[in-house]
Amino acid sequence: MFFGIIASLGSQSFGQLVANEEDWTELPRSIHPGDSAVPPSDAVVLFDGKDLSEWQTIDGKEAGWLVKNELLEIVPGSGSIYSKQKFGDVQLHVEWMIPEKDVENGNSGIYLQGRYEVQIYNSYRDASKIYYNGQTGSLYKQYKPLVNASRPRGTWDTFDIIFTAPRFEDDGSLKTPAIFTVFHNGILIQYNSRLKGITTHEKTTAYESHGLKQPLMIQDHGDRVLFRNIWIREL
Q1: pLDDT surpasses 60 at 24
Q2: Does residue 10 lie within any of the structural domains?
Q3: End-to-end CA distance of the chain
């Protein structure tokens, strides 16, 4: 049996097969993993219910959203908000809720590097009212979610996003694309999805060269949406 396995490997050598060295080069650092209420000890907390000190408008002015009862609420028309700190490859945790009343679609979005959107929308049960790559959890107009894991209005949804930033050559051409893996309420909805360019409403898209680290953006699309427990880990 053993020799049959070796023969089936074709051109692989025996030495390649059994190489399995112990790694004693660098001990992984220890962190506290946190829980549903406490972020991991190495996370950058972007909103903890207190204030908007980590956020600003696109032109560097004070963010105009509402902080009330330890929640962050979009003030429609005040503009999207951008993190003051810039990030490259990250793990991002965001909790959000579409209110039960006085909100049409709960339209918003989480934009990694201010360009690459994971859509927020009222997709509970009736997701057919918007194109499928525009419902909650879509990489907007590029990849629809693998499943619809949305909860009803008035309850909290969670995104956990693993993002690999795109890289560009010295001449501005794309070297490697942006890559997303996304969990919605603990359910895998995007797996190693490679973006074709910036997420845009236009019919075509392309990449625009930019630095490795860029701000996170949360979109004001004219609807009230609530947020809490926003933290990010650089990878």
Answers
A1: yes
A2: no
A3: 42
- pTM listed for this prediction: 0.89
Residue 90 token pair: 């990250």
Mean pLDDT for 2-22 is 59
CA nearest 92: which of 185, 175, 168, 163?
Answer: 163
Record the tokens describing residue 105, joined without a space.
């679609």
Whether 75 is in a domain gets the answer yes
**pLDDT-above-70 percentage for the chain:** 92
CA dist 20 and 55 (Å) reads: 47
**pLDDT band for position 15 (50/70/90)?**
low
**CATH (domain of 57):** 2.60.120.560
Q: Residue 43 domain-assigned?
A: yes
d(CA 93, CA 161): 7
Q: Which of 73, 163, 85, 88 is nearest to 118 (CA)?
A: 163
Average pLDDT over residues 190-195: 98
- Asked if residue 89 lies in contact with residue 76, where contact means CB atoms within 8 angstroms, the answer is no
One-letter identity of residue 55: W
78 located within any domain: yes
